[in-house]
Amino acid sequence: MGTSSGETIERYTPDAVAAGRYAASVDALRRQYATAPATASVRLAKPTSNLFRFRPPHTGYALDVSGFSGVLGIDPVTRTAEVGGMTTYEDLVDATLTSGLMPLVVPQLKTITVGGAIAGLGIESTSFRNGLPHESVLEMDVLTGDGRVVTASPDNEHSELFYGFANSYGTLGYALRVRIELEPVRPAVALRHIRPVDAASCARTLAEVCAEQRYDGLPVHFVDGTVFSRGEQYLTLGSFTDTAAGRSDYTGMRVYYRSLRERATDTLTVRDYLWRWDTDWFWCSKALGAQNPLVRALWPRRYLRSDVYRSIVAFDRRYRLSDRMRALRGAAQRELVIQDVEVPLDKLEEFLEFFHREIGISPVWICPLRLRKPVRWPLYPMDPETLYVNVGFWSSVPQRDGHRHGAANRAIERAVVQLGGHKSLYSTSFFDEEEFWRLYNGEQYARLKRTYDPDGRLPDLYEKCVYGR
């Protein structure tokens, strides 16, 4: 962050109290892990989740990791932060913004944790220039499956774990402390919503904007988009600005995604921009009635947020309330299609055409990304030279008679693989075991599992992501 001549910046000194609390939490966790029954599967006792693999209540051993939430320190000189792995991005952003900084990539939902985004991937509108959250990690302390707490960095004896941690979903260990890079911010983000005429034009514009990081003479710091149909798609280009005059507020009655159709430009404070999608869980709050003006007027503003909606959905899935209501009405059962996939930019038009024709969910979120560093992360092997587009869709489709369970999801998986893309594993997957390990580097995963969880105390990645165990 630049400073004027003669200005003095106070250098970061680690908070001794926070460091002491962290050390005590590590000791307590080691003791807790050692007392867990050797035959019990181990998981985290977390109050929230952003996974969409709904499973029966866990009957194994639940680790209390509440001591690993919170920011340990922020260094405005080196633009780094020391943070507990269970810290939510909501808390992290609140802490870093006070220093005029933000994480390089801030996933869209407030209760995603730093450790979760690293182990399970994450993406947002800075990903076209900053890659994915795990690429801004400098080092991390990991509780491994064999009960050790090791420090993993790109060039130490645990470098294989460092690079293999991304996309491991808590099956090799849990991040307890993470040191990450930050970047400077300005007070607000000015938005331009542009409307390409079709998917091909959308892809061409994305290629231009991501290569130049400019559009129509102005710098571009954020890029994402929304597809409503074949003939209606918008790209939103965000630029840092010093003025927040006339800024919009989408944390109350107004709904952000609707504004894309209503105005060509907009301005949000940095914080409101980072959480623009959380208030209505992108657009998914509509299914829960939260966008109905009468309901919204009565819905407390503090509960207009993704974790509340996700809890409602989890309750519904646990007791199959919606399924039972549909059965009583004689309506067709529905298949959940909640996925994020990455396809190469030059395949975006083809994928969207398949999706409109075969799946038919709308809206759809798109977000360009390119790996920030020329590194291949082994469990999610993307080409560092390729610009990808994340396509996110979160809804359901009628379950078609005569089709096997998960027919729509299986079709999506086939299309993504055929187009040279990748599928995120935070939700349901249907790959057979051989294909799964081919796509997600089973050989390297097995080597890491033997090294860091030889007794299988933590779940296996395939069993966790496909069978939901």
Label this structure with key terms.
alpha+beta; Uridine Diphospho-n-acetylenolpyruvylglucosamine Reductase, domain 3; Alpha-Beta Plaits; six-stranded antiparallel β-sheet; disordered N terminus
Structure report:
The protein has 469 residues and is an alpha+beta fold. Among the domains are: 16-184, Uridine Diphospho-n-acetylenolpyruvylglucosamine Reductase, domain 3 (2-Layer Sandwich); 320-430, 2-Layer Sandwich (Alpha-Beta Plaits), CATH 3.30.70.2520. Helices cover 32% and strands 23% of the residues. The chain has an eight-stranded antiparallel beta sheet with strand order 14-9-13-12-16-17-15-18, with helices on both faces. A hairpin with a 2-residue loop joins strand 10 (214-215) and strand 11. The radius of gyration is 22 Å and the shape is globular. Residues 1-11 have low confidence and may be disordered.
Mean of all residue-level pLDDT scores: 93
CATH class of the domain at 16-184: Alpha Beta
User: How many DSSP helices?
Assistant: 16
Radius of gyration: 22 Å
Low-confidence runs: 1-11
Largest sheet: 8 strands, antiparallel
Q: In which range does the helix fraction lie?
A: 25-40%
CATH architecture of the domain at 16-184: 2-Layer Sandwich
Principal-axes shape call: globular
β-strand number: 18
Strand order of the largest sheet: 14-9-13-12-16-17-15-18
Structural class: alpha+beta
CATH topology of the domain at 16-184: Uridine Diphospho-n-acetylenolpyruvylglucosamine Reductase, domain 3
Strand content: 15-25%
